[in-house]
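QA checklist item 7 of 12: single-chain prediction sanity check.
[x] sequence parsed
[x] length recorded as 624
[x] structure emitted
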Amino acid sequence: MGKRPIQFEDILSDRGVEEHLREVPIPQSSFLGLFVVAGIMVVAAGLQLINLNVVKHALYAERALDNVSDAKVKMAPRGIIEDRFGKPLVENAPSFNVYLYPRLLPKDSEARDAALTRVGAILKMDEGELWKKIEERDWNVSDRILLTNEVTQDELVALAAAPDLGVRIEEGFKRVHEVPLVFSQVIGYTGLVGKDDLAADNTLVMDDEMGRGGLEAYYDEYLRGVNGKEVAFKNAKGEIKSERVEREPTAGDNITTFIDKDFQQYFYDRLAEHLKSLGRDVGVGLAFNPKNGEVLALVSVPGFDTQHIGNAIVDARRPLFNRAVSGVYNPGSTIKPLVSIAALTEGIIDPLKQILSIGYIELPNPYNPDKPSRFVDWRPQGWVDIHAALARSSNVYFYEVGGGYKDQKGLGIEELKKWWETFGLDQKTGIDLPGEKTGFLPDPEWKEKKTGQPWRIGDTYNVSIGQGDFSVTPVELLNYISAVANGGTFYKPRIADTVTDAAGKEVWKSAPTALFDLKDKIAGAIPDVHEGMRDAVTKSYGTAFLLHTLPFEAAAKTGTAQIENNTKTNAFFVGFAPYKDPDIAILILIENSREGSSNTVPVAKDVLLWYYENRLKDKANNNQ
């Protein structure tokens, strides 16, 4: 086909169009916008290059390395936890970890099933449990699964001798408590990290261990070391050609605590022995230094075996539950020193005024005049002033001082709650353990909202003696008693003293922390409360008279709380010593006690005696 000839009409037509067109210059703003967009793209590209080559260099380099290598994590040993004298409470014992790598199993399904059956038989694992572990594993997170770190020498030999089982054995560590059970609630335990843990903390790797309770959890960031890495380089066929250690593991930091190992062990054994003699099995023991908040002992019976957590999970006694910091209890008569301080400070009662206890008081019943409401004492006390009321633990005295009766004015629920809050019973103490709870402070508004019933004088009577809906935790209770002992300073309870690295360099140091100070506010009431608590020990009618033979002076208050519609009784003891310059304050709780607070006093006597003979005697002799 020839070239199309130019038509004249076309030329005329084009010319007509051109005559109607004008040249319009491009605005400067268009060029500016183009430069801005281009500049943004250049900056973005530069930032991404920096991100890939600097910020995330290690990440992508490691991913690239993984494509041509077989990396193995070298687990770092966790830090050691010691008592105040440097005695270890938990250490790392060498162990062998058995890992299953599915990619190393035989390709043939029958041979693979036979291999897994053989692995289960050697490790004495139920085959169904083994398959469940494999099926529930998130293989996107890791290409291996830890089968056990509890392996015997015979099992190691059997695994090594059988080829194609898909397992590898690596050296590792396991946490071992120096004394099983005794320190379980203080130390806690460790467990393997889960998917959620990995998502929350990118420093963790699968099969890492992290704290799951106690100090292990609270100070996990310090105790957990930095894992090492060993790399085996492969060729295109997957054959290992060379190996090298990319990073040596770094051990975790060590923690020195204020816990007295020998004292805690005696405390635990004595309480456990006494519980057994009563046919009971649940109790709590606490010991603080009231001068600075140091926790000398924290005992919870029964303890649990950290090597067999599964057994503790199914134990009906709930040994994993830390009752010292998470248990909530009616304090019973151990709240009476607080009520005494409030009443004396507010001018409700004169220290020498006596109130008669015939064993009960009665209030008229407007709905049934023939059946007045009766509030009982645990026995008739006769005429008692505040010292005798504390020593005898008179309920009637504190009914009247707390709620009022006839011509005796009472504090009332509003003042009582104000003083509970003044003593910090509405807030956590801040003790360095996970899971701390607070008690419950009832009031009229709460009751009406919950039950539709108004607050009555009987409710005030009940909370005035630590009953009703009023509750506290053991650590809150002993912290307030410690403040009474020292004259009014509330210290934050502290278990950990120092954190040091593997070279011994101090990383962190604890210091006494005053939560609040009531010394000026309650100074006028403290001497009478001290005297009443001392009388509980020295007077023949005192509820803690058994302690009067101790070789040093002590002060005490016992308490009994009726629970579960008065079908069970929890028994408390709180006290401090030496009386004039206290170095120790203790709490003992026995759940479902047979005979109330009297069951706690023998344990208290022996615990205080041990502490005097082994810790305070030399100090006392040097001061003479």
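[x] summary fact logged: Residues 1-19 have pLDDT under 50 and may be disordered.
[ ] second reviewer sign-off
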